[in-house]
Specification:
2 copies of one chain form a homodimer.
Chain A lengths: L3 H10 L8 E5 L4 H12 L1 H4 L2 E8 L5 H17 L2 E6 L2 H8 L3 H20 L3 E3 L4 H14 L3 H4 L5 E2 L2 E2 L7 H10 L15 H15 L5 H30 L1 E4 L2 E5 H5 L3 H16 L7 H13 L5 E4 L3 E6 L2 E5 L9 E3 L6 E3 L4 E9 L12 E5 L8 E3 L6 E2 L8 E2 H7 L4 H4 L4 E3 L4 E4 L16 E9 L4
Parallel strand pairs in A: 1-2, 1-4, 2-3, 4-6
Antiparallel strand pairs in A: 5-6, 7-8, 8-11, 9-10, 10-11, 12-16, 13-14, 14-21, 15-21, 16-19, 17-18, 19-20
Helix pairs in contact in A: 2-9, 5-6, 7-10, 7-11, 11-13
């Protein structure tokens, strides 16, 4: 039987209820939720709380579901508690949203509870998970594979959701219902298509009781102990997140590699998960194996190397930084012939370019702008064009002793990988004559023999 | 079948072997250890290692045990590895030391391995635990009840003990033995009285495989992930231990309560366990429930309240400090009549005391020493004695408005609880006239009417 003090102890230890709270109680009509309502009802004066009941008719079972609703309604009448009942087509919603029946049921339930909660101005939503649910969840997670966070199983409180019966065994709840002649309906969950959990409950737990008769309590205790550690690790990671992570754009976070290298892997995986949560809303998408891949990427120290993580997250190193982004890298590619004395638009990078030719005069002065350069016109072979880089491009930077791969030149200039495709290259029929914004080719520079001068000007229309 | 690269990957990831190591390989003759020896033998040149085999005859199975030893000896001959075989009576040792056969076997095995290791100057001892052992151990700990540390199960390396096969399944090991025609002996562990583990292996793991066919790998992976977190938490706790813990004596550690109050419970339990390890050599003696009791003690902020923890550890608060000690508090109790002009020894506290009487003169000066005081001799009723405190003692401290409980006086003076019994009290037939080292009684002070002066001197013979 349930000792009321035990429930109160849970409530106080985990600060589930504040004096004066309005609480929406989720009641299916099964033993757990009926017991929860009955117990909270006993505590109304002590905590000065006001209760509201929310019952969702899942429409899985036709007439029986109607009877569940009637039962809950009657119970609320007896207890003088306001009752909200909503009927909803779970299979339809599941189909429409591509969810399993179980997932759809959960989504709709919590949407409904939140809706009632908002309507009545409630601070809390009480749900009836018990100690056996706790143990079963830990086992399910363990069997599926998980880390410490998964093993912490169900929490006594998460935001406004509270679970006052989480320390009470199912057996005690059933005894309580019998003692108080509550006659709850058959537990809905037994009839919901959560076959896996039922198997754990009906087969695995009894098998484990042969090894330890108190296996349910033992597992629940383990979940509780692990939660303390898990909470601490999360707090540590959140502190470090605030210090290290910089949000450059909505979908682009950076963190300094130097900071990462000092971090213990335990924190690093959590940090990465917080990044994932920020980018795609789900921290679970990053698993331990992804972290190992990331560590490998960092240790290699190769700028520009990127890896693809789940949910469209791309990570790449960029000199001292590790960059996480969900930007879809639209491949930029352009190539336009230039027309003398006219502007040529490069819409891909929102810029334009023109060239003209002047005769050399004694008072010729080199243009001082980064985006305006002078070349020896008589060396140009064929027509001029502007394009972005291609595989194998080479280039002879002004002042150097020979050509080098354009890629290496970009690396030397520490140009972000994702910017490289957007840099215009001015070419004649044979060579790159100018990497716009950077150097011109040594081969085309003005010499004492130059008589006709080619001037090329690039103009950025606005910052992209 | 075992991919040799997989074992090498384990060796390198966990830094199990350094180039040039001498390694003692524990070989029972079963598939695991035979495979381990065979694989390490293949790696001799690559790691420049030297192998020695240690085989312990447990004497559980008579003739079969002899055959095991012969088999191991023959295998070592073939591989040209030096083999040490020792026969020992495990049941006898178990009986003599009050251990289970399993415990005794483990103690003796590792003693033997360490002995060989020392003799040959080996850096490492290789043992043959595999991935299935890992999964089984995690389950055993989970069923028994544990925290994160227990769930990290078996470690790839602990001090000089290394486990190169810990990432390899039992099935792969057996395949390897068949492929290399090694014909290992029946695995000893199946015949050792470790019934519980065999049941886990033969019944529980197959049952869990119905839920997840890769349950062994999944559980081993969980152990590995949890180890990362557990290691981090341990490191954090060790750092804090160094900062907060003060070792006052070999069996007495203190930590500031202010420091504790700021600590997250996750670190606090680890800190307490490190204290326990320092005091009694075993950190596991402190469980989560003990920490909760400790937190309660601290929150109450009662100086002098003590609690008893396992293995004779006493904890009590003392003003700003929490004191952990294994000191057995020998109850001090003494009472001696004083003799005029003679020393009375108080052996219990290693002090002596005497008194004498002088006539008042105009140039009388009050003694300035803490342990020498003057009283009005004519107020003394009956004889003088020195004793330590008893329940109910009251006292009128000089300058105060009336009597108070001696206990309260001690508390006001912030006198350590364990020191209170050792403070001499000088009494006449009715009253405490002096709390030695502290105040005299207001009732016995020298007044303008005093004619004869009682001088009492206490002398500490050496510091206790």
């Amino acid at each position: 039987m349930i000792d009321l003090d035990k429930v109160k102890n849970t409530i106080e230890k985990h600060q589930l209820i504040d004096l004066g709270d309005k609480i929406v109680v989720a009641v299916s009509g099964g033993p757990d939720s009926v017991c929860l309502l009955h117990i909270l009802h006993k505590l109304i004066n002590e905590y000065n709380i006001k209760l509201y009941v929310a019952h969702l008719n899942h429409n899985f079972r036709g007439i029986e579901a109607q009877q569940d609703a009637q039962y809950v309604n009657k119970l609320c009448d007896e207890l003088n508690v306001m009752c909200f009942i909503k009927s909803i087509n779970v299979p339809k919603y599941a189909k429409e949203h591509g969810l399993s029946l179980e997932e759809a049921g959960r989504v709709l339930r919590y949407l409904f509870f939140e809706e009632i909660s908002e309507n009545v101005g409630a601070q809390k939503i009480a749900v009836a998970h018990n100690l056996n649910d706790q143990a079963e969840t830990l086992l399910m997670r363990l069997i599926r594979g998980t880390g410490i966070q998964g093993l912490t199983a169900i929490h006594h409180r998460r935001h406004n959701i509270i679970r006052p019966l989480l320390d009470i065994t199912r057996r005690d709840i059933e005894d309580y219902c019998r003692f108080h002649l509550l006659q709850p309906r058959l537990d809905h969950t037994n009839l919901q298509p959560i076959y896996h959990r039922n198997k754990i409950r009906l087969q695995l737990i009894p098998a484990l009781e042969e090894y330890n008769p108190n296996i349910v309590e033992t597992l629940a205790k383990t979940a509780e102990i692990l939660k303390v550690d898990s909470d601490y690790l999360d707090l540590q990671a959140e502190d470090i997140y605030k210090i290290l992570i910089k949000k450059e754009k909505a979908n682009r976070l950076t963190l300094p590699i130097q900071g990462i290298n000092k971090l213990h892997p335990s924190l690093l995986i959590r940090l990465m998960r917080l990044v994932a949560e920020n980018l795609v809303g789900k921290r679970e998408v990053l698993e331990y194996k992804h972290i190992q891949i990331l560590l490998h990427l960092i240790s290699k120290d190769i700028t520009g190397k990127s890896i693809q993580l789940p949910m469209g997250i791309t990570v790449y190193t960029n000199y001292e930084k590790l960059i996480f982004t969900t930007e879809t890298e639209e491949k930029v590619s352009f190539s336009y012939p230039l027309i003398r004395d006219s502007y040529t638009n490069i819409s891909e990078i929102n810029g334009r370019i023109r060239y003209y030719i002047i005769n050399r005069k004694d008072d010729f002065q080199f243009p001082k702008e980064a985006f305006k350069k002078a070349f020896d016109w008589d060396i140009i072979k064929g027509g001029l064009l502007v394009r972005n880089r291609k595989e194998g491009d080479r280039f002879w930077p002004l002042g150097m002793k020979g050509t080098k791969k354009l890629k290496d030149y970009f690396i030397d200039c520490k140009i972000d990988r994702h910017k490289r495709d957007r840099i215009p290259l001015i070419c004649d029929d044979e060579e790159i004559i100018w990497v716009v914004g950077h150097r011109i080719s040594d081969l085309y520079k003005i010499t004492k023999d130059t008589t006709r001068i080619l001037i090329i000007e690039f103009e950025q229309l606005n910052n992209v």
